Amino acid sequence: MSQKYHNQIEVAAEAFYIEEQSEPETDRFVFAYIITINNTGKAPARLTHRHWHITDANGKVEEVHGEGVIGKQPYLKPGESFQYSSGTILKTPVGAMQGYYDMACDDGSHFKATVEPFTLSVPGSLN
């Protein structure tokens, strides 16, 4: 069994604009996002750290690193999922996020679970 198949984590993201917390006149655009993490591999793994790159439409990149997510370090057995929500604030109505989670296996090995880029946008700003 290949290590890649043994340790497989799939990550899905969905973002939402939070109009009632935003203040466009002062360049404050608030976004929430829901992340779903699925263990589609053959071995359990624990999410130990998060690494985000958040980019606004001006090209400003904010890097966010920290332990776990929302104060937790979820342990996912094969077939299990974990979902959480969080948010970020941009100075532009459009941006993007991407990153990865550091995952630890029971045998002491580690791997990265990639979070593919996803868009943060005020409705109507991209069309």
UniProtKB/TrEMBL annotation:
InterPro entries cross-referenced by the UniProt entry: ApaG_domain (IPR007474), ApaG_sf (IPR036767), Uncharacterised_ApaG (IPR023065)
Family annotation (Gene3D superfamilies): ApaG domain
- Boundaries of every ApaG domain copy: 3-127
Which Pfam families does this one have?
Answer: DUF525 (PF04379)
One of the GO BP terms on file: error-free translesion synthesis
State the protein's name.
Protein ApaG
